[in-house]
């Protein structure tokens, strides 16, 4: 027989119950009221009752029954059901077998009422859309048990382990576990809706920016088109097309040269290093090669550029 993974939660039964959890999600606040593992002994019943909050009931082991919405349903391991505010329900364990239940009680508060425009703008719009859609579906879920298709039960154990560990990130892990329980429960009912939209980025533009970042970080050494393409996980030809599209029809070599010349110009203005030393430090093979490239690009030699910049800044150039 496999060990029951949730038995560990009996060691400190009130660990999660003691936490004061208020989770801001989009324009909603989720207040965790109860968060625990309980057991119904064989034949135990809990008469009809209701709560003013949402309660997520998961059955990790055992079997029994639940009555709600005027109907009675059999329960077995791997199932869960949801009871919302004001929903009368009755629970019963099998006469010959205990039934374990993971319970999450939450109160949900819509914070859009009275929210200032600037506060509303501060909320990630994609997260706001996600939370709004989830809450809308939560209120429409049928009073019928279903299978825990997406493994929400595992989130109870993750939250408990994070609580016991009490290390950096534990609080965030617990909050994320609560959100995952809610999300996975909603998804388990698969109401046949169209896929929701997700935020997307211009992948080519992202690759272009990453390419420039890499060139600027490594221009003084050996930088090749093939190495950079490999790091971006694309072909050399694809990278060339991206660079020409986003860099004024520039080639890889011309972009590297531009970056190196920018660095050379900074050195000429800000240091007294020789042209030869600057050339080698900024990726050129020697001073003569830099001289030829610089003159072709700027119509003057590096030394002439240095004098011009210093005259412009009012510096003495008589000893140069």
Q: How big is the Rg? A: 32 Å
| CATH first level of the largest domain | Mainly Beta
Count of domains: 2
**Mean pLDDT over all positions:** 90
Order of helices and strands: EEEEEEEEHHEHHHHHHHHH
If you consult CATH, what is the topology of the largest domain?
Answer: Jelly Rolls
**Which ranges are low-confidence, i.e. pLDDT below 50, for 5 or more consecutive residues?**
none
Largest sheet: 9 strands, antiparallel
Measured between the Cα atoms of the first and last residue, the distance is 88 Å
Strand content: 15-25%
* Secondary-structure arrangement, i.e. CATH architecture of the largest domain: Sandwich
Q: How many alpha or pi helices?
A: 11
Describe the protein's topology.
Elements: E1 22-25, E2 28-40, E3 45-49, E4 54-68, E5 71-76, E6 79-83, E7 89-93, E8 99-110, H1 117-121, H2 125-138, E9 146-147, H3 153-165, H4 170-188, H5 203-218, H6 225-231, H7 236-246, H8 252-270, H9 275-281, H10 287-298, H11 302-312
Antiparallel strand pairs: 1-2, 2-8, 3-7, 4-5, 4-6, 4-7, 4-8, 6-9
Helix pairs in contact: 3-4, 5-7, 6-7, 9-10
């Amino acid at each position: 027989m496999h060990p029951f993974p949730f038995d560990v939660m009996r060691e400190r039964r009130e660990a999660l119950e003691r936490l004061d959890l208020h989770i801001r999600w989009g324009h909603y606040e989720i207040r965790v009221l109860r968060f625990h593992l309980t057991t119904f002994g064989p034949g135990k019943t809990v008469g009809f009752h209701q709560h003013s909050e949402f309660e997520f009931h998961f059955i990790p082991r055992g079997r029994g029954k639940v009555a709600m919405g005027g109907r009675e349903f059999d329960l077995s391991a791997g199932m869960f059901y949801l009871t919302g505010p004001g929903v009368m329900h009755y629970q019963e364990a099998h006469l010959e077998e205990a039934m374990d239940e993971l319970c999450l009680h939450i109160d949900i508060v819509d914070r859009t009422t009275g929210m200032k425009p600037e506060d509303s703008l501060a909320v990630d719009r994609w997260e706001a859309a996600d939370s709004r859609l989830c809450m809308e579906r939560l209120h429409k879920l049928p009073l019928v048990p279903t299978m825990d298709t997406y493994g929400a039960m595992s989130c109870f154990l993750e939250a408990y382990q994070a609580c016991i560990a009490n290390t950096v990130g534990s609080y965030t892990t617990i909050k994320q576990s609560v959100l995952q329980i809610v999300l996975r429960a909603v998804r388990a009912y698969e109401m046949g809706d169209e896929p929701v939209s997700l935020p997307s980025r211009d992948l080519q533009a992202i690759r272009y920016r990453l390419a420039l970042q890499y060139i600027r970080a490594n221009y003084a050494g050996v930088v090749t088109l093939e190495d950079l393409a490999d790091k971006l996980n694309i072909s050399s030809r694809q990278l060339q097309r991206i660079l020409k599209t986003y860099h004024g029809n520039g080639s890889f070599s011309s972009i590297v040269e531009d970056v190196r010349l920018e660095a050379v110009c900074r050195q000429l203005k800000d240091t007294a290093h020789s042209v030869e030393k600057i050339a080698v430090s900024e990726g050129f093979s020697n001073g003569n090669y830099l001289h030829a490239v610089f003159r072709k690009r700027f119509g003057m030699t590096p030394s002439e550029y240095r004098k011009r910049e210093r005259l412009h800044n009012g510096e003495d150039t008589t000893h140069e």
